[in-house]
Design a protein that fits this description.
Keywords: FAD, Flavoprotein, Methyltransferase, NADP, Nucleotide biosynthesis, Transferase
Cofactor: FAD
CATH architecture: 2-Layer Sandwich
GO molecular function: flavin adenine dinucleotide binding; NADPH binding; thymidylate synthase (FAD) activity; thymidylate synthase activity
Number of helices: 8
Subunit structure: Homotetramer.
Catalytic activity: dUMP + (6R)-5,10-methylene-5,6,7,8-tetrahydrofolate + NADPH + H(+) = dTMP + (6S)-5,6,7,8-tetrahydrofolate + NADP(+)
Radius of gyration: 23 Å
Distance between the termini: 37 Å
Number of strands: 9
Structural class: alpha+beta
Length: 278
């Protein structure tokens, strides 16, 4: 299920969107209409996430000239014009022996749309990352919510630290979907009622769930992204197993595909050396 009931893209108006400006509360008092008045909208539901690479300065050659300045000084500038393929052994050496700083001389900025629960985990990653997220204080939040797709494993078996997730039954998927959609609709109705009564956005947003979609810009370098991927994705070549929540793993997989295209030699060395950030 990619989306239900409206536009999947966060930031666009869902299908069936209607705007109703309400200047009176339920008790009849008149309130000033703010720059973002309360709205009556049709919620939409998504099971996907969106990751867009919006800008970058990232290439395997960035790693090479940064590494070679240690021994070549000014002559390291010559690496800018050389074919990185000739020096992939150096990249592998740096990765294997964990000489990490040469992997920091690049930059990638992603625009990400995902449920708030993903961003609460994402922002645990602080070193080498910069974030700017959509604000619920400064704008009225749109009713786009996350509902797991049929391929999302629902049942956890085992004890903390040693568990697996298994597929849910059709009945369990229906329980999850029905409960989430009902809860989302009621919480957003309450949010709108509070805004219509003149309550500030920063107060009214407290009733909204972590399944609400948000959006942010996230900027990183290859080293910080490798650390993120080592913790937030599962991979057969990983030396150290990771058990990420599926929703943040979905984001990580999309970011990984973009990075692999930009820095293929660095990406290959990352996998060949157990997906451990240098």
């Amino acid at each position: 299920m990619a989306e239900r009931g409206g536009s999947g893209r966060k930031g666009s108006r869902p299908e069936g969107w209607t705007r109703v400006v309400r200047a009176r509360s339920a008790v009849g008092r008149t309130h000033p209409v703010t720059d973002t008045p309360a709205q009556t909208v049709t919620p939409s539901f998504r099971s996907d996430v969106t990751v867009e690479l919006v800008k970058h300065t990232a290439a395997d050659s960035d790693v090479l000239w940064a590494a070679r300045v240690s021994t070549a000084g000014e002559q390291s500038l010559e690496e800018l014009q050389k074919d990185p393929e000739r020096s992939k052994g150096l990249i592998n050496y740096l990765m294997r022996d964990r000489h990490g700083s040469p992997f920091e001389h690049n930059s990638m900025t992603f625009f990400i749309s995902a449920p708030i629960l993903v961003f609460r985990e994402f922002m645990r990653h602080r070193v080498g990352w910069s974030y700017n997220e959509e604000s619920g204080r400064y704008r009225e939040l749109e009713p786009v919510f996350y509902v797991p797709g049929q391929d999302r494993k629902l049942v956890q078996e085992g004890r903390p630290g040693k568990y697996v997730f298994v597929d849910g039954s059709p009945e369990q998927h229906k329980v999850v979907s029905d409960a989430m959609i009902d809860s989302y609709r009621r919480s957003y109705e309450t949010y709108q009622e509070m805004l219509a009564a003149g309550i500030a956005r920063e107060v009214a947003r407290s009733v909204l769930p972590v399944g609400l979609f948000s959006s942010m810009y996230a900027t990183c370098n290859a080293r910080s992204l490798m650390h993120f991927l080592g913790l937030r994705t599962q991979h057969e070549q990983a030396k150290v197993p990771s058990f990420p929540q599926r929703e943040i793993e979905m984001v990580g997989e999309k970011m990984e595909r973009e990075w692999a295209r930009l820095m293929p030699l660095t990406y290959a060395a990352f996998n060949a050396n157990g997906r451990i950030a240098p």
